[in-house]
Design brief:
157 residues; mainly alpha; AhpD-like; 0% strand; AhpD family alkylhydroperoxidase
């Protein structure tokens, strides 16, 4: 598979990527736990079928110490006992926030309240921003058909 567009060679695409990468730094520098951030990126990417994001975020999470068991169970987190209540709340919000076009009605009050019980206001802002951001990356990569498989942890900083 070959990418339809080179984000780094095209000036418009490169400029856009720089802006959203800056937005991503706001989230990564927040107090939202890095483990939660990794799980959110992986789950949204699974839902959206973004191979390049899955390649990147599973490898980065493993490099940061995430276990193979937890990585393998993200897609079935509801039935898995290896996630904390806070992680489960973040995964529920991620799923509902990612599937808004599926007619599910967006994020339910129940899911929002569950997340609110585990995260402070700044962390919630980071969580919502991260769900929006990873969905943006997923769509960019899916539309441009960016190939996956050759990512090395830390490649993008």
């Amino acid at each position: 598979m070959e990418a339809r567009i080179d984000y780094y060679a095209n000036p418009v695409a490169a400029k856009f990527a720089r802006y959203i990468n800056s937005a991503g730094k706001v989230v990564s520098d927040s107090t939202l736990p890095p483990t939660v951030q990794d799980l959110v990126k992986i789950r949204a990417s699974q839902i959206n079928g973004c191979a390049v994001c899955l390649d990147m975020h599973t490898k980065d999470a493993a490099h940061a110490g995430e276990t193979p068991v937890r990585l393998g169970l993200v897609a079935a987190w509801r039935e898995a006992t290896v996630f904390t209540d806070a992680e489960r709340a973040a995964l529920a919000l991620t799923e509902e926030g990612t599937r808004v076009a599926d007619g599910a009605g967006g994020v339910s009050d129940e899911t929002w309240e569950l997340a609110r019980g585990h995260f402070d206001e700044d962390q919630l802002a980071a969580l919502v921003s991260l769900v929006a951001l990873i969905n943006t990356y997923n769509r960019m990569n899916a539309i441009a058909r960016i190939p996956a498989g050759d990512y090395e942890p830390g490649k993008w900083g």
